[in-house]
Amino acid sequence: MHATATAPATFTPAATIDQVIARLDAAIDRARRENSRLGFFACLYRQVTVRVKEGIAAGRFQDGPRMERLDVIFANRYLAALEAYQAGRRPTRSWQAAFDAATSNLLILQHLLLGINAHINLDLGVAAAETAPGAGLGALEHDFREISALLGELLDDVQDRIGRVSPWMGLLDWIGMRHDEVVFTFALGGSRDLAWNWAQRFATTDAARLPLEIDALDHVVATLAAAIRKPHIWVRPLLLAIRLREPGDVGRVLDALS
Fold first, then answer.
1. C-alpha–C-alpha distance, residues 181 and 186, integer Å
2. What CA–CA distance (Å, rounded) separates 122 from 81?
3. Residues 132, 143: contact at Cβ < 8 Å?
4. pLDDT 10s digits, 151-161
5. pLDDT-derived band of residue 47, with 50, 70 and 90 as boundaries?
6. How far does Cα 114 stand from its chain's mean position?
7. Helix (H, G, I), strand (E, B) or coil at 205
8. pLDDT tens digits, residue range 103-116?
């Protein structure tokens, strides 16, 4: 089944949050060497992972060890998908759509959104249910919601970083698509609420049926990816104008996002 291909047999999962960060560093380094836009989401995700690690150390979560387990399980879905794709295997449809777009001249924002879409809308609910299956999921909700607040604190910084390499991004204000709202409100608001709803569903789903449920969600999330990649036709000329002011040098973008 397509969705289960995310974790190929050769994938060795990270075991700690420090190992996750090390693998993200390796992914960013490879993207820099290969001038690949696959590194854009990895840069954003590294910031998030470091912030979660700091939050755990500061006692921000009710259960720090459980939060690290969630963070690692969650990250491994992305890392496994990336490894599969780079090895010529097929990840989930949602990640396939995000990774395939790396060869397209989309906005930096669109590349980030495609990664957020796959990771939040598909992976997060799966990871939460795996971390705290069955009736144990309820105890995770407070810390799950706390991540939203934590990520919201990154909003201004990420907005500034994108603005350094996308000087015309402000044009999105004209059509009600402020980039800070799109990147993070998309991930922290309705999408994270939906992820929690899916986690509740997955946590009580029979193990034999779970791959079918995940696969069905993957279909939906991949459809959302298509809309991110090709928005309404009347928006496209504006996006093209913004894209023409963004650098073609991937390394420069990685420097800004890192």
1. 7
2. 12
3. no
4. 777 777 777 88
5. very high
6. 7
7. coil
8. 988 888 889 989 98
